[in-house]
Amino acid sequence: MAKTTYTLPIGPIHPALKEPTMFKFVMDGEVVKEVDVQPGVNHRGIEFIGMRRNPLQVLHLAERICGICSIVHQYAFTMASEKAAGIPPTERSQYIRTIMAELERIHSHMLWAGVAAHELGFDTLLHWTWKLREEVQDVLEYISGNRVNYAMYYQGGVRRDIPPEKVPRIKKLLTDYRREFRKLADAFLEDPVFQHRTVDVGILTYRDALETSAVGPTTRASGVKKDVRVDQPYGAYADMDLKPCLPEDIGCPNTGDSYAKTAVRLLEVAQSLDIIEYCLDNMPPGPIRWEMNVNKVLMHMKKAGGEAIGRTEAPRGEMIHYVRLDPGDENVSCWKVRASTYNNILAWQKMLVGAQIADVAIVAASIDPCIGCMDRVTVTDGSGKQRVMTKEDFYRLSVKKTRELMRQGVRGRIV
Length: 415
What we know:
Layout: E1 5-10, E2 22-28, E3 31-38, H1 46-50, H2 55-62, H3 70-85, H4 91-119, H5 123-144, E4 153-154, E5 157-158, H6 167-189, H7 192-198, H8 206-211, H9 217-220, H10 228-231, H11 258-281, H12 294-304, E6 306-314, E7 317-325, E8 334-338, H13 340-352, H14 360-365, H15 371-374, E9 378-380, E10 386-388, H16 391-407
Antiparallel strand pairs: 1-2, 2-3, 4-5, 6-7, 7-8, 9-10
């Protein structure tokens, strides 16, 4: 009998993939029969670098794990290191942190919406959404001084306040977005071409979402009510009456397809506008930091010691940072990051099987993957066999690399 299937590799470098990862498809004509996802080409050793720095220095490193959801990495690390050292954040800083996190959520979802439109060849919508995204980045720069990597969070508080004179500019953004939001939602959800390319494409069922431990909009599009801001509130979220956004909120079925995932993200943009407005209107007075003297904060953390987990709801879903501080050691003793994409890539296998090859790009993009956030490394020897690198392997290779760099006279750049 003639063979009817063939293997099609896509990646790690491909126009439809914005970050390097590898797909190996078994195709039957135009239909995907099997898929093997092979990440491991973008490992940067950030956790190892962070364990050679003190908690204040790791703040800047944490937000560089990802350029799109940078602040939630810094947020999760800040929360974990605060809990480990017993440092309470001030009440005012909790509201400022929430405002920054929700501004970044809007910026991230708008970026995703533009990428999704681009994957479908809808570049007019790409440019429109990214034009709206510029307005959010302008406000982030207005508050923090930076368009990306805002350097706002700090153990016990935030680095910069949002004084009353800055509030009108932020509220103008909320007004502008609400004015444009209906047109934006219609451009995605009412457009017949977008519907044909996304409805019943890349379906993740409720059961599959639970079994693969999917998080964020990827799981909420399937009807799973999972949101850290609701389930385990932090920041100012505990003072609000929030609920997870589901497609059914606007009359769409919770099918978990690419259309439903789009609906969830658009709903979350509208929700973020309400959260920011609440925080601005109810901002408590008081200091923005537990302790203004940086040296005192660092000495307290050096003496305290402890371990803790920081959980945040990133734009892509639940984010976890584990931190351990040993008494007497100025540096972070252990730092482990579990990014949202680490969960969501498992859903790819459920979503891609049965898809048309032309739909692979939008199905892969529908989870909003960030490979740089989650990637691990796999080593392939000459025989083609693979093995997973262990902690001991990484430590040994890192020490070897560090010694090589020190011999080259670049010690000051790596310690």
